[in-house]
Amino acid sequence: MKNESLIFGIRTIQEAIISGKTIDKLFIQKGLQGELAKELLAIVRQHKIKINYVPVEKLNRLTRKNHQGAVAYTSPIDFYELENLVLQVIESGETPLFLILDQLSDVRNFGAIIRTAECTGVHGIIIQKKGGAPVNADTIKTSAGAVFKIPICKVDHIKDAMFYLQGSGIQIIAATEKASDTIYKKNLTVPTAFIMGSEGKGISSSVLKLVDYKAKLPMYGEIASLNVSVACGVFLYEAIRQRQ
């Protein structure tokens, strides 16, 4: 697959959205008028794509071509449908291992997590459509290409994905310092999904209320927390250790 690519022009962007391409970023000229612009905006809102309204100078910096007041970046990968992926994993007879990322925003952490997830046999990574780190060139580079080898699902709401996983018999364990038990006391030989929070805020409180278990890592130094990609790696390798 190609790296994240820039597309421009109202019709081109319209067709990309209709054909199912994932739009990572959409820039539209402030005050853009006309019937074609109205059509584009209607499709964009229908697909719940975030619009960045910018001055024409910003668009001219992105491309020197005739952009017609609209420029977008498409994702370099195709995303999976969560329901289909979960069903596929269960039918394969393997013990499911999923990873949920709640509002993770740093693309390098995202890439590092993808790389570790691929190395540990994670069946899929679940991210929310809005608010999280995009799959871009930095993500691809940090993942060492693993982004092309592991299924990634984009969902409207993390909570709905959690309900679906739990309904499919998959326990959800949150990585949080608010836990009383360490990850080493949890049974990870059963179908499991780990949920990791954002770098600054951790897992949102509303999401934390819905998990089956909470777990932490023992900390002996003066710094109270680990980098999220490092913590994620420890959690995943503990699952592998228990399953061997």
Q: How many helix segments?
A: 9
CA-CA gap between termini: 33 Å
Biggest sheet strand line-up: 7-6-5-9-8-10
The string of secondary-structure elements, in order, is: EHEHEHEHEHEHEHEEHEH
Helix content: 25-40%
Radius of gyration (CA) equals 20 Å
What is the tally of beta strands? Answer: 10
Uncertain parts: none
SS-based class: alpha/beta
Task: Explain the overall architecture.
- The protein is α/β, with parallel strands linked by helices and 244 residues long.
- 36% of the residues lie in helices and 19% in strands.
- The chain contains 9 helices and 10 strands.
- It has helices at 10-18, 35-46, 56-62, 82-92, 107-119, 137-142, 158-167, 205-208, 228-243; strands at 5-8, 23-29, 52-54, 70-74, 97-101, 124-128, 152-155, 171-175, 192-196, 213-215.
- A 6-stranded parallel beta sheet has the order 7-6-5-9-8-10, with helices on both faces.
- The longest helix is centred in the last third of the chain and has 16 residues, at 228-243.
- It starts with a strand and ends with a helix.
